[in-house]
């Protein structure tokens, strides 16, 4: 078994290792959502605290995604409580900033956002149970048995729905 890169924590990563690896990126993400460094730092800290309270963190297949989902939920709740929407960004300003720094990074960021929007659209077209099974498995890292228990269906049905959902996603993505 290959050793894991020290900078990229895996499933058994401690909250401290996650903080070292993803703290700066998480804060930048939260600044982009809230438009405020202080609020972003507070939300990042809260996200790490909540992650550290997860009873079985070793069961999480993708700690980074889980941590960012916690942060996104916190940011959304924070913005709703303030009665504001995520900060709008003028693309012309972003383009000027990107050209002044790293044009390739800006282009990759735009491509990634476009891919995420496309994936969100594809997921939105799936039947609700297919989508729930797919997200519980791929995003949340639950086993077939856990998904079956949560949704009150058999593990065979979970496997069937997951297979169908993945096939539809691949088909829609190829279009």
Automatic annotation (TrEMBL):
<dbReference type="InterPro" id="IPR013325">
    <property type="entry name" value="RNA_pol_sigma_r2"/>
</dbReference>
<keyword id="KW-0804">Transcription</keyword>
<keyword id="KW-0805">Transcription regulation</keyword>
<comment type="similarity">
    <text>Belongs to the sigma-70 factor family. ECF subfamily.</text>
</comment>
<dbReference type="GO" id="GO:0003677">
    <property type="term" value="F:DNA binding"/>
</dbReference>
<protein>
    <recommendedName>
        <fullName>RNA polymerase sigma factor</fullName>
    </recommendedName>
</protein>
<dbReference type="InterPro" id="IPR039425">
    <property type="entry name" value="RNA_pol_sigma-70-like"/>
</dbReference>
<dbReference type="InterPro" id="IPR036388">
    <property type="entry name" value="WH-like_DNA-bd_sf"/>
</dbReference>
<dbReference type="GO" id="GO:0016987">
    <property type="term" value="F:sigma factor activity"/>
</dbReference>
<keyword id="KW-0731">Sigma factor</keyword>
<dbReference type="InterPro" id="IPR014284">
    <property type="entry name" value="RNA_pol_sigma-70_dom"/>
</dbReference>
<dbReference type="GO" id="GO:0006352">
    <property type="term" value="P:DNA-templated transcription initiation"/>
</dbReference>
<feature type="domain" description="RNA polymerase sigma-70 region 2">
    <location>
        <begin position="18"/>
        <end position="83"/>
    </location>
</feature>
<dbReference type="Pfam" id="PF08281">
    <property type="entry name" value="Sigma70_r4_2"/>
</dbReference>
<dbReference type="InterPro" id="IPR007627">
    <property type="entry name" value="RNA_pol_sigma70_r2"/>
</dbReference>
<feature type="domain" description="RNA polymerase sigma factor 70 region 4 type 2">
    <location>
        <begin position="118"/>
        <end position="169"/>
    </location>
</feature>
<dbReference type="Pfam" id="PF04542">
    <property type="entry name" value="Sigma70_r2"/>
</dbReference>
<dbReference type="InterPro" id="IPR013324">
    <property type="entry name" value="RNA_pol_sigma_r3/r4-like"/>
</dbReference>
<dbReference type="InterPro" id="IPR013249">
    <property type="entry name" value="RNA_pol_sigma70_r4_t2"/>
</dbReference>
């Amino acid at each position: 078994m290959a050793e894991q890169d020290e900078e990229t924590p895996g499933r058994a990563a401690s909250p401290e290792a996650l903080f070292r690896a993803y703290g700066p990126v998480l804060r930048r993400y939260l600044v982009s959502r809230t438009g405020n460094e202080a609020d972003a730092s507070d939300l990042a800290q809260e996200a790490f605290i909540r992650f550290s309270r997860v009873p079985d963190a070793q069961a999480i297949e993708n700690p980074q995604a889980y941590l960012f989902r916690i942060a996104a939920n916190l940011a959304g709740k924070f913005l709703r409580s303030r009665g504001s929407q995520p900060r709008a960004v003028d693309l012309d300003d972003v383009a000027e900033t990107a050209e002044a720094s790293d044009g390739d990074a800006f282009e990759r960021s735009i491509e990634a956002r476009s891919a995420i929007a496309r994936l969100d659209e594809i997921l939105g077209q799936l039947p609700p149970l297919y989508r729930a099974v797919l997200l519980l498995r791929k995003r949340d890292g639950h086993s077939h048995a856990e998904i079956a228990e949560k949704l009150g269906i058999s593990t065979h049905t979970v496997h069937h729905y997951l297979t169908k959902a993945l096939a539809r996603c691949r088909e829609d993505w190829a279009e």
